[in-house]
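For this section, I looked closely at the sequence of one protein beside the C-alpha cells encoding its backbone, which the following lines show:
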Amino acid sequence: MAAPSPKYRFARVYIEPHEGFEVNLAKAFVKKQVPAVVTQKKDEAQFVLAGTAKSRGIGAYGYSGATVQLIDAQTHDVVWSYNVHKPTAVAFQASAEAIAKGLKAFIEAHPNEFEISR
C-alpha cells in the first residue's frame, strides 16, 4: 500500500464499483462532509467501502436499499457496516446519504483510527 499524499489529513477510502451506486456514495461523502478522502486508486486507500445496492418496483411502489462494509485495506478486517432501506425505488441518493451520515458518525467516534499524521 502506498503512503498517503501529505496534503490529506484523513484516511483515503476507495469505493468499490457497483452499478453506479459508487457515484451516489462519493457525492454523499462530499455533501455530508465525511472526514475521509475518496480516491480512485484502490492501492492508495487505507479503507475499502464494499457492498451492494438494489432497487425493486417502480417509483413510490418500490423500495431501494444498500448494505456496505468498510474494510481495512491492509488487514482485510471489517471495521464498520451499515444497512439501509428506503421506501421508494428511486431513493439511491437518499440511501447513499444515510450511509455517509452513519460513516461520518463512526469516524468521528473513532478519530485515532482514521486520521493520518503528517
In short: Residues 16 and 50 are 5 Å apart (CA to CA). DSSP finds three helices and five strands in the chain. The helical segments are 21-31, 92-109, 111-114.
